[in-house]
């Protein structure tokens, strides 16, 4: 019988949870999309890099330029540093450094990291930092779930994901939305059960769902211009039922 759940601030701020991240988020079409961009760029900044699987893969496949990953969760960077050498791993967020003169050819936010920027002020500050970090010909690429497709409607308790850990125990993960969206924000919980824990581990998160027009406005305000938007990882057109809003922007 499970005891009272342990509530954590961030799903992967705990070492034991961070160790599960790659198993819960296996390499897929989105990763292939970003890897192609990374391999064709001389220098890359991955904002919210998590376990660093994108940059580790790029280095392993022969990328010889500068690769930097930044993430606020120390536990995630523990996983990242176990991979390929020669990648710069930075603990923090875009406010951690002054980016003037960084001159990155590519800045990416993968894994829907863009959606954790909740306030207008936080979003504007992050986009301004991205603009400062880019070279004059650089590109900023990120994805956000399309609010018109209402993806949260499938985040129900009966949808359970299971993974087998390194010690052959099974961990189950489920999501539960805590009410309808409030404006463009949605709050949900993520519950982990099994493994070495004697009680469920529960995290509470909020995401922001911005439509294409709002994204364009925020980007323009930071001196960034959209050059392409896609609705899926095959670079299909963006429509009302597209699962993603994948955006490519450049300095204005």
Question: Which properties best describe this structure?
Answer:
252 residues; 2 domains; 7-stranded mixed β-sheet; alpha/beta; disordered N terminus; Rossmann fold; 5-stranded mixed β-sheet
Detailed description of the structure:
The chain is of the alpha/beta class and 252 residues long. The chain folds into two domains: 6-14 and 149-207; 21-146 and 210-251, 3-Layer(aba) Sandwich (Rossmann fold), CATH 3.40.50. The chain has helices at 15-18, 21-24, 29-39, 53-60, 74-80, 120-133, 212-221, and strands at 6-8, 43-47, 66-71, 88-91, 104-109, 134-145, 160-164, 170-177, 185-194, 201-208, 224-230, 244-251. The strands form two sheets. Strands 4-3-2-5-6-12-11 form a seven-stranded mixed beta sheet, sandwiched between helices. The protein has a five-stranded mixed beta sheet with strand order 1-10-9-8-7, with no helix packed on it. A hairpin with a 5-residue loop joins strand 7 and strand 8. Helix 3 crosses helix 4. The longest helix is centred in the middle third of the chain and has 14 residues, at 120-133. The relative contact order is 0.16.
């Amino acid at each position: 019988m499970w005891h009272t759940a342990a509530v954590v601030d961030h799903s992967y701020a705990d070492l034991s949870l961070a160790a599960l991240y790659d198993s819960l988020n296996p390499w897929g079409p989105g990763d292939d999309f970003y890897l192609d961009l990374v391999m064709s760029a001389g220098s890359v900044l991955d904002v919210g890099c998590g376990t660093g699987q994108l940059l580790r893969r790029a280095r392993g496949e022969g990328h010889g330029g500068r690769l930097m990953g930044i993430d606020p969760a120390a536990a995630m960077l523990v996983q990242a540093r176990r991979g390929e050498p020669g990648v710069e791993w930075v603990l923090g967020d875009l406010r951690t450094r002054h980016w003037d003169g960084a001159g990155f050819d590519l800045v990416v936010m993968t894994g829907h990291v863009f959606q954790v920027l909740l306030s207008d002020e936080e979003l504007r500050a992050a986009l301004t930092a991205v603009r400062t970090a880019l070279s004059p010909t650089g590109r900023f690429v990120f994805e956000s779930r399309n609010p018109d497709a209402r993806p949260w409607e499938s985040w129900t308790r009966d949808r359970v994901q299971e993974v087998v850990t390194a010690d052959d125990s099974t961990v189950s993960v489920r999501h539960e939305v805590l009410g309808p969206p409030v404006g463009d924000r949605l709050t949900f919980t993520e519950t982990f059960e099994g493994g070495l824990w004697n009680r469920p581990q529960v995290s509470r998160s909020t995401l922001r769902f911005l439509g294409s027009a709002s994204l364009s406005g925020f980007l323009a305000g930071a001196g960034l211009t959209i050059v392409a938007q896609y609705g899926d990882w095959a670079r299909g057109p963006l429509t009302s039922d597209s699962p993603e809003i994948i955006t490519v922007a450049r300095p204005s």
